[in-house]
Structures are given as structure tokens and as C-alpha cells.
Amino acid sequence: MKKYIGCDLGGTNLRAAIVDVETGRVLNQKSISTLARKGHDAVMKRMADLFLQIIQSSGMQRDEIGGIGIGVPGVLDLEKGEVLFLPNLAGNWPHVPLSDTITRLTGLPTTLLNDVRAITYGEWAFGAGRGVDTVAVFAIGTGIGGGLVLNGQLHLGIGGTGGELGHTTIDFNGPRCGCGNYGCVEAYASGPAIAAMGLKAVTQGLTTCIADLCENDLNRITPELIARAAQQGDEIARDIFERAGLYLGIAAANMCVAIGPRRIIIGGGVANAGDLLLDPIRRTIKSRVTVMPVEQVEVVQSQLGNNAGVIGVACWAARHS
User: Which of 112, 137, 235, 300 is the most exposed, fewest CB within 10 Å of its CB?
Assistant: First the structure.
């Protein structure tokens, strides 16, 4: 069985790895700066060079690689292999023929997938979703990405846009989200939203050790720092995670009644808070869902960490080569 390359196209870094798609094992990986400000042509050339470098450093021949999969943080035309819109990269990449360009530069067939759909596929195939047929994934970082596997199939929807769980509405009177809608769960429970709750608590003068942990440098308040405060018994910090878990729990409850997932997987950097975040999600689901057997739905933390995306998109490329 040929090996495949998986790549995570990030605003800051390009991560690529050779993956054994039968076991999910990452065999060889490398990360370099994206240098997105240089424009899409320069970034695509860097990507192609990176792929050829990891093949060379692995000691494998190019014809031992079955193809390349790229996880892209934006809107794609999967049929054409084009990027339509990348919100976090310079120039936004309108109608950039990423798939054809990488194929031309490397000589290897190239498949695209949204980055969180790639994480979803990886976690389902080899991580926290193994062994079940239907999962919903919330990836919580700068925003909230999402993905669905329904009856053993990655759900793509129209043009690959299905599964944007971070943009489900949890309050129709809520604040405006970066996507243009109002009251999305992303506006309430993303990393920046959690950090903003900590900042507000400190500036209001509430009794919390968050200020001490950041040495009164409010720019250093992050979800990780608030989680540290909560683990030290800080009530304000614990309450922040209770609220974030409530908001995510409402979105997860909506998934329960819509698709009946066996597992809800919480990933992204914020998920490192563990049960601080997962327990209020579980409680919220149990208190709100009555029309399906919610006690059979597991809420679990993702397992593959930073490798989920490259594993998932390499497996996706293998399936479509």
C-alpha cells in the first residue's frame, strides 16, 4: 500500500507529513513558516518544495507516494480543486487552483479538504471517533470549526460546506459573529471569547487569581491561563469554563436531536482544559435533550492532537486517488 502526504495549510505554518493510511501512523513530518504575505504563488511553491523535501528525507522514492492531501482553512470548490476564500491568509486566495498547481509542481495527484473536516476524518478513522458510525466534531481555537461523519461517511454537503458547527446559532439576539451571522456559538465559546471573559473579570475587579497568573499583563490572558486558574480552585475561572461549556452544550444538544451522534468530539487547543470544559457540556446536553437517548452519546476529548488534520487529509487523499 502506498503512503500519502498530508498537509495542514495554516496562516503561520505549513505542516506536512508522510502517513501510513492503513495504520494512521505519521512516518515523517516537517513544519516551515507559511510566509503568507508573499502571496499564494510563493506559498504554493513553498508547499511543493516541502513535499519533495520530506519524500527525499524519508528515503522513499516519489513513486512510492500515492498522492497528497491538503487541509485548507477556508472555503473550497472540491470538484475543481480550487480555493475560493481563505479568511486568515493574505490576499484571501480567490479562485486559486491549488490542486492543479501542486500536482504540476510535484507530479503527484493532489486532493483538497477543509482543515476541520480533515481533523474530523482523522479523529473518526484513527482517534476519538474510532468504532462508531456517527460523530460530530467541535474544534475550538481562534474560531470554532466543525465536522460530521454520518453513517460512516464524512459529510461534505454543498461544495464541502457541510459541518460548520461553530456557526450554529445558540442565541438569535446574540452578538455578531465574524461570519456575519448573529449569536453563533463561535462568538460565545471560541478561544478569544473565553479569554475575553477572563479579561472582563479582571477589569471589573472581581476576586480572581487570573491577574496574578498573567502578572497584570492583560494581553497574556488566554484560555490556557484561565484553565490553570480554575485548576487551582479559582471560582471565577471555573465559572468561565462553566459558561463556555453551557454554550457549547447548547450547540451539541442541537447536534444530538439533528443527527443522533454516538460521540461528540471536542478538539482544538481549548479542549486541553479537559473535564473543566467537557463536564458542563455533558450536563447541558443531559438537561436539554429529551427526544433521543442522550445517555448513549459520549462527549470525549480529541486524541490525535496536532496530527489529526494531516492524518485525516492523507487518508482522504488515499480514498480519492
Answer: 235
Whole-prediction pTM: 0.95
Taking the alpha carbons at both ends of the chain, their separation in whole angstroms is 12
Contact between 17 and 6 under an 8 Å Cβ cutoff? The reply is yes
- Strand-pairing partners, residue 298, are 263
Residue 42: which pLDDT band, with cuts at 50, 70 and 90?
very high
Q: Would you report the helix, strand and coil content of the chain in percent, each value rounded to 5?
A: 45, 25, 30
Q: Identify the helix (H) or strand (E) that includes residue 300.
A: strand 298-301
Grid coordinates given for 235:
471560582
User: Which contiguous run of DSSP H or E holds residue 314?
Assistant: helix 308-319
What pLDDT is attached to residue 171? 98
CA dihedral angle for residue 271, residue 277, residue 280, residue 283, rounded to 10 degrees: 40
Separation of alpha carbons 9 and 15, rounded Å: 7
Which of these, 140, 96, 106, lies nearest to 317 by C-alpha position?
106
Count CA atoms within 13 Å of residue 260 on its CB side: 6
**How much is the average pLDDT of 99-128?**
97
| Euclidean distance between CA atoms 76 and 313, whole angstroms | 14
Q: Do residues 266 and 248 lie in contact, with contact meaning Cβ atoms separated by under 8 Å? A: yes
Task: Identify whether the C-beta of residue 267 lies closer than 8 Å to the C-beta of residue 137.
Answer: yes
Taking the C-alpha atoms of residue 4 and residue 310, their distance in angstroms, rounded to an integer, is 10
Residue 139: φ, ψ to 5°: -110, 110
Q: 150 in helix, strand or coil?
A: strand
Question: Which has more confidence, 179 or 113?
Answer: 113
Distance, CA of 25 to CA of 10 (rounded, Å): 21
CA distance 225 to 189: 15
Q: CA separation (Å) from 215 to 108, 197, 199, 206, 221?
A: 51, 17, 13, 16, 10
Which amino acid, residue 167? H
